[in-house]
Amino acid sequence: MPRVIFVASNGARREVSEAAGASAMTAARINDVSGIEAECAGALSCGTCHVYVAPEFASLLPPPSEEEEGMLEFVAAERRVGSRLSCQIVLTDELDGLTLEIPETQT
Ligand code: FES
Questions:
Q1: What pLDDT shows up at residue 85?
Q2: Going from the N-terminus, what domains does the chain have, and what CATH number goes with each?
Q3: Which pLDDT score is estimated for 102?
Q4: Domain named 2Fe-2S ferredoxin-type: which ranges (predicted)?
Q5: Are 83 and 74 in contact (CB under 8 A)?
């Protein structure tokens, strides 16, 4: 199972494992990682599952869809180069160790 490392805005790290095929947002929710609100539960309509993907993993992800790009326009925290919606990141074995920083706020 791929591991995902969530890094809170205060630097606290939390490593979880979740089955390939699950989303990074699901991995956060199942494992009670705080800071991922995910109000729409992955319906791509809330923007509260915003994360910053570590640079070394950014190129391993497929580019965001037009819909994800649209939602990223409305995220509460600063949008950065690595900004993605965690509900749109599908875990794969290749992404083992995926490191995602959680923004200070989602709302
Ligand atoms: S959970 Fe709502 S956009 Fe990702």
A1: 98
A2: 3-101 (3.10.20.30)
A3: 98
A4: 2-106
A5: no
- Please name the residue that has the structure tokens 């749109």: 88
Q: Does the pTM of the predicted model rise above 0.90?
A: yes
Nearest ligand 1 atom to alpha carbon 40 = 2
Region 51-71: mean pLDDT is: 97
Rounded Cα gap, residues 84 and 90, in angstroms: 12
Mutate to test the pocket of ligand 1, among 51, 66, 87, 106 (most ligand atoms within 8 A of CB): 87
* The predicted structure's pLDDT at residue 12: 97
* pLDDT at residue 20, rounded to an integer: 98
Q: Whose CA is nearest to atom 3 of ligand 1?
A: 44
